[in-house]
Amino acid sequence: MDTKSISGSAKYLKLGVMFLFAVLVLIFLSSQALALTTLDVTTGGSGYNSIQDAVDAAPITTDTVLIRVAQGHYNEYVEINNATSITVEGGWNNAFTERSDNSKTTVVSSFQISNSTATVDDFTAYGSDFNAFYLENSNMILRNIRAVNSYYNGNGPGIFAYDNKSLAVYDSVIAYNAGNTTFYLDGPISEIAGGGGGGIYVSGGEVLLKDTSIHDNQIAGAATLSTTIDIPVNPGIGGGLYLDDTTTTIDSSWIYGNGAQNGKYGGIYSNNSNLNIINSMIYKNYATKYSVGGLYYSFSSGKHGLSIINSTFANNFAEKDINGGIKIHESASTTDTIKIRNNVIWGNWEDTTTAPFFQASDLNIDKDSTATTPIMDISYNDIGRSTGMSFTGIGNISADPLYVDAVNNDYHLATGSPAIDTAD
Fold first, then answer.
1. Count of CB atoms within 10 A of residue 7's CB?
2. ∠ at Cα 413 (322, 405), nearest 5°?
3. Bridge-partner residues for 367, per DSSP?
4. Beta partners for 219?
5. What is the C-alpha separation between 381 and 144, in angstroms, rounded?
6. pLDDT tens digits, residue range 107-140?
7. E strand or H helix at 5
8. How far apart are the C-alpha atoms of 159 and 45, rounded to whole Å?
9. 410 FRET partner, CA 20 to 30 A, in 75, 94, 331, 394?
10. Residue 149 CA from chain centroid, whole number
11. Which pLDDT tens digit goes with each residue over 284-341?
């Protein structure tokens, strides 16, 4: 064998060794990146006896952590801070061999999560005197959760989300939560703020609500209660949802039966946000004082957009001359966009202070005199009574859609409905 052949073989051997070393380094780094710590929590048996004990024991600032929680009732306010990547799963049996997808089987009082990347799966947060879920400055996934029966004197008794990077809620129920701010005073009052978001309060970040039901939540306004007066000072805002400075998508979800007692905006309040509503039902929400039953959407600064597609607004109700169904108010100087297509917006009502006192009120669009007129695409809808700014579109009708049984919340279209086959 000549010297040239030996030299070439050595070269390839060296390259092979270098390649093998690189592969081993990658495997090592991958194993470090995917390092997983699993901890188990049970009400009896091996493992930790409380979720908080497991959280405190886990290396949450460095590793990926999975906490498996056996079915049971845990009277805990679970706090998670500065977690790199943590998942808390409920529904496990005590042997941790099987897991139920029934979120009612694993119950806590509250989760309070900040500065973390976290997933909470298969839990009920029940009966808290705080927010059922308090989420701040985090990347969050809530899957198959129930936030129910929490009562808190403030914002978001169901879910309070502040300045999160992202929040995704899947297959969940947020229901029967109540926020209230009431003061008993006999003297003058300078300012009292009502709460916001009986079901969900969001300020900042991106939000997805998918296959989720938000119902029968309430937010109540502040009032003075004295020997001589009982008047609202600042109303509660957004019985179902309060959205401010967010990009929110509501997809295939149900928002119903939410109320603003002594307050504004029964179903959804959205301010300075991008809001997309798709394939969803918004019905029987109410505001007992002032404003809007179903959806109030406001532009006041920045450039934003509203899109409502393939959805139904029905039987929402408001008092005091505003709007039962949808009200859109433009006060910004930027050019915003409104897209409303393939919807049924019918059967919403308002109680007025003048005759006829009780009338249809489905869609209202208005703007301040100094605001820029928004770009509007409003087409292929069945809209009852609309007021405010005029709009042009194609394929719109105004005819009773013939709901199957609106009294019992069946808003499918009956045979012969004029709205059938009218979408684009």
1. 9
2. 75
3. 330
4. 179, 260
5. 33
6. 999 999 999 999 999 999 999 999 999 999 999 9
7. helix 3-33
8. 32
9. 394
10. 17
11. 999 887 678 999 998 877 668 999 999 999 999 987 656 889 999 888 777 788 999 9
